[in-house]
Specification:
Two copies of one chain form a homodimer. Chain A is mostly helical. The first copy, chain A, folds into two domains: about 80 residues, Arc Repressor Mutant, subunit A, CATH 1.10.10; about 160 residues, Tetracycline Repressor, domain 2. In chain A, about 55% of the residues lie in helices and about 0% in strands. Chain A has ten helices and no strands. In chain A, helix 2 packs across helix 3 and helix 6 packs across helix 7. The N and C termini of chain A lie far apart (about 50 Å). At the A-B interface, helix 1, helix 6, helix 7, helix 8 and helix 9 of A face helix 1, helix 6, helix 7, helix 8 and helix 9 of B. The structure holds a DNA duplex.
DNA sequence: ACATATGTACGTATGACATACATAGTTTTA
DNA sequence: TAAAACTATGTATGTCATACGTACATATGT
């Protein structure tokens, strides 16, 4: 990938590229190709054929340019991926009124989740450092808003935001990989059910008692989401995989801020 | 990477390889090379020089064999990575008594976190499907145990386990990438502080009000972890990045199970 | 207006890499 | 003891990121 030894993410370059300060008024011919057009093409390719189909040659071919022309606008593939990740993230949702912080957070979570369904390959782009792209920062900011409003301190809000982001990413990762239902190029179905069956043969109740118990219970039909008991869930409907965990977390946040308000500030 | 079109994770192969059912007593010469030796070498390489240094040629060279010999024992690099991920995960910690579920979960989280510090490259191995390796399953089982004991239903425990796994992975990912402090091959320091400074210049309070506020507060010295007020934290010390989120989540779990016990079963 | 510095686009070249394929040698089983 | 089945090796192929050199365009300073 990178030529240099330690593969250090090139912060400065990242920034100038991500923030698109392409100063106009230089010499030479007008560039027809731009970083944005390249990123757009890359996203199109990844959406259509997956991240492994995303090569510099492919991008160039799709745009009708020679491979090396790309490098006049983007210094390396690593950096291209960074730009692509930011562009594909898009703008965060507008969270209406932040007075109901649960609703706001749940909406944010749901939208991010949806984004990962639309661009599953986003989950495979290596994360090289703290987000620095304008869209990534906007997403973070939008999440911090309701968290701060709910009464969290700065550091707490940052931790909570990281927590939520990680949960969505992680859950989406597994969910996407499971649900891909593999368009079975070779004939085998390989769906979720098949995996479950193959697994149950491996899960020896002696070695994995808890896991076996969970599997047994779920085979018996005790699935999540059927039990919508827990009071007001905030209006926004979340995917079942996320709902329980996020709700518990928000419960914990609420009791925390409640205790804080009663005690000190 | 894979030759086939859809890049379907080869479930059957994964399983037989991961579960090491290498039946002995076949013809031909005894294999000196084994999947396990290969995996060990791979881990050594990744620990020393990072995942990008992990090539089939490098493994073969380190072991003193020709490149293609590797393929007699492992059908593809993708599969090798799967095996490596399971082997490197190692056995999960023993969680002493599960009567204190908070302590148990926190211990589990701390150990997983430590593992990611030891093998940061584990975070970059693409996750192709639900864990199926023996170690991965053992980790999952160990986490499910205290969760079930705490009174969660099967589906809830699974969701909580996924939630916690995702949080640790996600947080470790960012933490690792930030703290790498880039041994600055080219002279630039590029540490956490530098990134923070570079960021603050970008963060326009108008565009990112919440983010700016958090940055300002943290620049003023309001850091997390100083405020160890929140009562019994469970004994086990967790990294600051994780502590707050995990504790809030566990709080939520506790109130959930408490409400459940009071209400129904 | 003109010369030049500075870009852009392109072709070719290089060096990694994963992996197919054919071959030669080694045991174990029939 | 012969053949079947497996191991290790060498060579070959195709893909990839990317360095480097060249031809050309154009905005800027004279």
């Amino acid at each position: 990938m990178t030529t240099r030894d330690g593969k250090g993410p090139d912060l400065e370059r990242s920034l100038t590229l991500l923030w698109a300060g392409r100063a106009r008024g230089r010499r030479g011919p007008r560039a027809q190709l731009t970083a944005e057009r390249i990123a757009d093409a890359a996203i199109r390719i990844a959406d259509a054929d997956g991240l492994e189909a995303l090569s510099m040659q492919r991008i160039a071919a799709d745009l009708g340019y020679s491979t090396m022309s790309i490098y006049n606008h983007i210094p390396s593939k690593d950096l291209l991926l960074e730009v692509v990740a930011d562009v594909a993230a898009g703008k965060p949702p507008e969270l209406g009124g932040t007075e109901d912080f649960r609703r706001a957070v749940r909406h944010w979570v749901g939208t991010l989740w949806a984004g990962f369904q639309t661009h599953p390959w986003l989950l495979r782009i290596p994360l090289d450092h703290t987000p620095v792209g304008p869209n990534q920062l906007a997403w973070l900011d939008r999440l911090l808003q309701p968290l701060l409003k709910a009464g969290l301190a700065a550091g707490e809000a940052r931790a909570a935001a990281l927590h939520l982001t990680a949960v969505v990413r992680g859950t989406a990762q597994i969910s996407v990989d499971m649900g891909s239902a593999r368009r079975s190029d070779d004939g085998r179905p390989r769906n979720e059910a098949e995996l479950a069956k193959a697994l149950s043969e491996l899960i020896d109740p002696h070695d994995y008692p808890a896991l076996a118990a969970v599997h047994a219970a779920e085979a018996a039909g005790n699935h999540l989401g059927d039990e919508q008991a827990g009071g007001e869930t905030g209006g926004e409907t979340l995917p079942a995989e996320l709902s329980f965990g996020v709700d518990r977390f928000l419960d914990g946040i609420e009791t925390w801020t409640a205790a804080k308000t009663r005690g000190g500030g």
